[in-house]
Amino acid sequence: MFTPQVVKAPTSTDVALAAGVSRATVSFVLNDKPNSRVSEDTRHRVLEAARLLGYTPNNAARSLASGEAVAGFLLSASRQDYGSTLGRTFDALLARTTDDGTDALRHTDTEQAGAEAAQLWAKLRPEAVLAESSRCDAEATELLRLAGVRALIVHGAVAVDYAPSLVVPQQPFGRIAVEHLAALGHTRVAFLTPTDPAAADTARERLAGARTAADAAGITLTVSPAAASSASLRDWAHAWRYDPHAPTAAVAYDDRIAMAAVRALADAGIRVPRDVSVIGADDHPAGADFIPRLTTVTFAADLLADHLLDAYTQMRAGTRVERVDAPAITLVARESTAAPARP
Q1: Does 188 fall in a domain?
Q2: In this structure, is residue 82 part of a structural domain?
Q3: What is the sign of the dihedral through the CA atoms of 98, 104, 107 and 112?
Q4: Does the reported pTM lie above 0.85?
Q5: Closest by Cα among 89, 81, 80, 85 to 255
Q6: What is the structure's pLDDT at 70?
Q7: Per DSSP, which regions of the chain are E strands?
Q8: What's the pLDDT score for residue 3?
Q9: Which of 9, 93, 161, 274 is deepest in the core (most CB within 10 A)?
């Protein structure tokens, strides 16, 4: 488990001593200065010493001249779409961190992972880091610890054993949606799954939750691909109009697809919720003012931001934190779902 390093972060002097070279040679190698005439053997020794020590260049001094920020809190961008509720959580966390007087930034690179990503983040000398677990593995965690990071939390589909974890379970989003429709009396339901590859893993989990609830309630569940545009659902909506055995409700991966579905159904002359119920997820800000107001599944993003901020405060003070749990995922019932129309 991640424990803050109590010694100071390694310096170029430490690298020089470990490699048996001068600080100037370390500077030549790590800054890749031209015409430095450093042998390949010496270059290898310096790079290996820096890797073993977890050394990364300190940008604090050069930031005075260049205007670059040195982060107190660093949020790394994610490769995957974990749902917009978690996105709002991270936005709120950045805002709260800034309000507390801490320099905070969102690092937008998504190409690097493992030690390469950690070296990239460590160059900004952050005190705290929040990173996707698929990008921040055990080796990256150790490098960040050696670089002086005092608080690290990783997030992903499952908890890890090398750092405090934030896990937001995705299956309840689909399960709660189908359970709501089952309680209303629906027996045929469609799940609208995104075509965006970045959302594939999250969609798979939400669909698994929907299937679990559908099996328990004896509901027939079908799956249709969709994007967040009514055009992508036009053929699906028109086919629905002429199918006597069409589902009477749709569970969308998120509210953006749900709103696109409502629009596509309206264009086909199908009324929501009189003819078809539609439910989304993640409580998009536009959903509450949409026509009809959109039923959704979500959790309290602001509350999770507070939990994360508390965890970072504890870790900075030396308290061990094992994991951060998301608030309960709940239904927000509005106007877009109702009992199925009678045959």
Answers
A1: yes
A2: no
A3: negative
A4: no
A5: 85
A6: 54
A7: 73-76, 104-107, 128-132, 151-156, 165-167, 188-194, 220-226, 249-252, 277-279, 296-298, 323-325, 330-332
A8: 60
A9: 93
Q: For 4-24, how does the pLDDT look when each residue is reduced to its tens digit (9 = 90+)?
A: 554 466 777 888 888 888 777
- How many domains does the chain contain in total? 2
Q: How far is CA 184 from the centre of its chain?
A: 32
Q: CA–CA separation, 146 vs 148, rounded Å?
A: 5
CATH code for the domain of 25: 1.10.260.40
Q: Is residue 271 part of a domain?
A: yes
Interatomic CA distance for residues 329 and 85, integer angstroms: 10
Return the CA Rg of the chain: 25
Minimal CA–CA distance to 122: which of 104, 94, 145?
A: 145
Cross-strand partners of 194: 226
Half-sphere exposure of 212 (CA within 13 A, CB side): 14
Range of the domain at 2: 1-55
Backbone angles phi, psi at 178, to 5 degrees: -70, -40
Residues of the chain with pLDDT under 70: 1-9, 32-36, 57-71, 342-343
Report how far apart the first and last C-alpha atoms of the chain are (Å, whole number): 58
Asked if residue 70 belongs to a domain, the reply is: no
Exposed e or buried b per residue across 129-156, where buried means at least 16 C-beta atoms within 10 angstroms of its C-beta: bbbbbbbbbeebbbbbbbbbbbbbbbbb
Beta bridge partners of 225: 193
